[in-house]
Structure formats: structure tokens, C-alpha cells
Design goal:
alpha/beta, five-stranded mixed sheet, three-stranded parallel sheet, 8 helices, 10 strands, globular
Length: 231
């Protein structure tokens, strides 16, 4: 563990691991408790009262964080020549088709998001066993299989994130960096949580949002009072 500063030690001494904090309090704490020497990511973990093994209880969606994620998102666009200029002008990092299909078959996956057009999905579909486990497979529901390539690239670069409940019923998502102002972290967190609340499956019974934790790469998890984030 990195050596703690006086302020970090003081923050840790006041932090109650069993405590429950409002979202603004948690955002302030996550900044104070970060002891990484780099600009660590801030993550939100939301445990839901769903059974993700049942199709009618799967929670998946997209949202655009008002202040972005703070991360540089590397975007690969797999498309025909007719869409290449549009992709490049929108800021895609890599644009092409066959050469990148071959690179991915060879094990290259050094990107954060893959966007493609419907007409080349047969070629992209063959990459499923490589892209799927890494969460990179383009999906129409996530807006990454589209003819509007320019908008899709701009959205992803501008803070659009794709989230999905895991097999334990938890959604994990990055909502910013510890360098963000507290208010920006709160607004990003609220945007994600409100989207998840709107996606509540009709088949979900009982308490929908079971718990919410905020943490950074190098901080303990801080429990957020679910009442402070509900609609």
C-alpha cells in the first residue's frame, strides 16, 4: 500500500467501514480516502434484487454521464469504405475492416469500445468468442451496431457507458475519477442510478436496489444510503 498522507490517515480514522453515507458524503469520502499516486477511477457497485439467470429479470442499458468518465476511450470502428471518413471525423481511433478482423483473430483487443455497421456483422460475428468475454462485442441495444457511426463514436467519446447486471445481480460501472469535483461525481452517479431505476423489470419482486457502494481503485468501499439515491 502507498504511504498515506496526514490528511488520508485522518480521513481513514474518521471513516466507519460499517457506516452508511448519503451520496454526497460518499463522494467526498471517496476523494479523501484515495491513496493512489495516480488519478484513480471511481466506481459504483449496485446490487439489485433480480435473478439475472432469468431473461425477464436481466437489467442492461446505456446512459450518458453528464460529466463523462474521465477516461480516454479508444474506439475501433469496423465498417466498409463508405463509412470510414464519417468514423474518422467523429474521432474514432481505429477505422477499417478486414485488417482489424485479422488482427483481432490474432489476439489484438487493445481498445475499449468496438462499433460496427449492420452490413458487416457477419464478419464481426465470427469474432464473438474473442470480443464477447472482454465485453467488446458490438450490440444493437448498446447502440454499437448502427448506420449512424458518427453519432455512436461521439456518444461513446462523450461519456456514454454500457452497463449490465452480472451473474451475482450486481452492476459495476466507472463514473469518473477522484480528481472530479464532488458535485460531478454525485451527478454522474445519480444519472446512472436513475437509469437503472427506470429499467426495473416487472418480474423483480421485493427490494429492487439492495445496496450501493462507491469506491476508487485504491480505497475501501463506502456504503451509500439507498434512500439518498431513490426516485
Amino acid at each position: 500500500m502507498a504511504k498515506l498522507t496526514k490528511n488520508q490517515k485522518e480521513a481513514l480514522s474518521k471513516f466507519d467501514r460499517n457506516g452508511v453515507y448519503s451520496l454526497p458524503e460518499a463522494a467526498e469520502l471517496v476523494k479523501k480516502l484515495n491513496y493512489a499516486k495516480f488519478d484513480a477511477s471511481v466506481d459504483l457497485d449496485i446490487r439489485l434484487g433480480v435473478d439475472p439467470r432469468k431473461a425477464n429479470q436481466m437489467v442492461r442499458g446505456v446512459t450518458t454521464l453528464p460529466h463523462g468518465t474521465g477516461k480516454t476511450v479508444r474506439v475501433l470502428v469496423l465498417c466498409g469504405p463508405e463509412k470510414e471518413d464519417e468514423a474518422k471525423e467523429a474521432g474514432a481511433d481505429y477505422v477499417g475492416l478486414d485488417e482489424y478482423v485479422e488482427k483481432i483473430k490474432g489476439g489484438w483487443t487493445d481498445v475499449d469500445v468496438v462499433i460496427t455497421t449492420p452490413n458487416v456483422m457477419p464478419k464481426v460475428g465470427a469474432l464473438g468468442r474473442i470480443l464477447g468475454p472482454r465485453g467488446l462485442m458490438p450490440n444493437p441495444k448498446a447502440g454499437t451496431v448502427t448506420m449512424d457511426i458518427g453519432k455512436a463514436v461521439a456518444d461513446v467519446k462523450g461519456g456514454k457507458i454500457d452497463f449490465k447486471v452480472d451473474k451475482y445481480g450486481i452492476i459495476h460501472a466507472g463514473i469518473g475519477k477522484v480528481s472530479f469535483e464532488k458535485e460531478k461525481l454525485v451527478e454522474n452517479a445519480r444519472e446512472l442510478i436513475q437509469t437503472i431505476l427506470r429499467l426495473k423489470p416487472a418480474a423483480s419482486k421485493g427490494t429492487y436496489v439492495r445496496s450501493v457502494y462507491l469506491s476508487s481503485t485504491m480505497s475501501p468501499g463506502i456504503q451509500v444510503d439507498t434512500k439518498s439515491v431513490s426516485l
